[in-house]
Design goal:
This protein has seven helices and no strands. Helix content is about 75%, strand content about 0%. It has about 160 residues and is an all-alpha fold.
Length: about 160
């Protein structure tokens, strides 16, 4: 899938999400991988066959691969950021798909609890740690905005071809 969203789009929809992505791309090489592992644990805790479990598992699989690349320092921080933003765009599209079927607020509330748990574990219950503010992944408004923008850009791209 081609990425249609730019850094400016992410900044407009969720500057917090963009900051988190940059922290993962440039910061501690094991942070994204550790967060992915905790997201996996939260996916296991979620009820079977629910939207939040599906979203968490998909996010885990994508973020784990990116986290490994970052930990092994395979790519530059710019390439890491590009991969993370691509993953975030895909997550926004998946969230919107699920939200259209079952309502975004209910899913967002359930996801917020899971990400709060991940953040608490990453910071040992302390204050905000750079890159651990995971509110983007349960911000229904920002996710739907990004997904809509992605669909619009894709349609424009297809019309040009």
């Amino acid at each position: 899938m081609k990425r249609y969203l730019t850094e400016a789009d992410f900044r407009e929809a969720s500057s917090e999400g963009l900051e988190m992505a940059k922290a993962w791309a440039e910061g501690d090489e094991f942070q994204a991988y550790a967060i992915a592992t905790l997201i996996r644990a939260e996916a296991c805790r979620a009820e079977a066959d629910t939207d939040e479990r599906i979203l968490l598992r998909d996010l885990y699989h994508r973020l784990e691969g990116i986290g490994r690349c970052i930990a092994m320092r395979l790519y530059t921080s710019e390439k890491n950021l590009d991969m993370i933003l691509d993953m975030m765009e895909r997550y926004a599209l998946a969230f919107q798909y699920r939200a259209l079927m079952h309502g975004s607020e209910e899913i967002a509330e359930k996801l917020a609890g899971h990400f709060k748990s991940v953040r608490y574990t990453m910071t040992d219950g302390g204050e905000h740690n750079f890159g651990t503010e995971l509110g983007f992944f349960s911000d229904a408004e920002a996710l739907v905005k990004l997904a809509t923008l992605s669909y619009q850009r894709r349609d424009e791209d297809e019309d040009e071809e």
